[in-house]
Design goal:
Length: 240
Amino acid sequence: RQIELAKDNIEQLTTAKQSVMPDHLTDQLANRQQFLDLTRYLMDLKENKPASNLHAQPVGGETTRPALRGVALLSELNCTACHSGNQELALPAKTAPNLQQSSNAIRPEFLLRFIADPVTVKPGTTMPDVMAHLTPAQRQQAATELTHYVVSLSDQSLSDQPLDAQASDRGKELFHSVGCVACHSPLDDTLQPLLPESSVPLGPTADKYHRDGLRAFLENPLATRPAGRMPNMKLDHWEA
């Protein structure tokens, strides 16, 4: 409900330091399956609505202005890292990934391909193609030099342990129970995505990560990506 108060009746105005969304609501759910069902329902709300309704929801008899949607994109794409924006908007800077943590986890071969052509290697990435103006030879040389620099930041020597089939089976169960499928598609028995069009693609994780590096990332993703797109699922060491 909307309640109107006379200004004379207001003794103090204070900016709330946290959301009015109550904490620990999910603790009232009986199990993780209920959490996944709730998440799936919210995803269905988005998937089943006409696309035109997603861009302008009625609010107080009005619709979201295109300029306001542009502000959201400015923040998400971090345009103000290069371009000065309206200071009145007070857009928070989007924290970049930690290059040292990335170099500890990601294979140099993947880094080279990603830096050289980020959109092709990872569709949907917010990493801009800053070398689009270079010739193919110049692009490859620059990507190679940048990869050497990023790898030089690593303070660990990671190796791939032999695959533990039993751990893999337990990991498959966790993938479908702890909330990964809220963003990433659930997989069928052949490990093919069931919802490829409406999910964040995992891509060839074995080509991208050292196994120890992926484990460390899953255990604490915010150390590598402090902007928080990948949430911390609160996995313990062995679950990760």
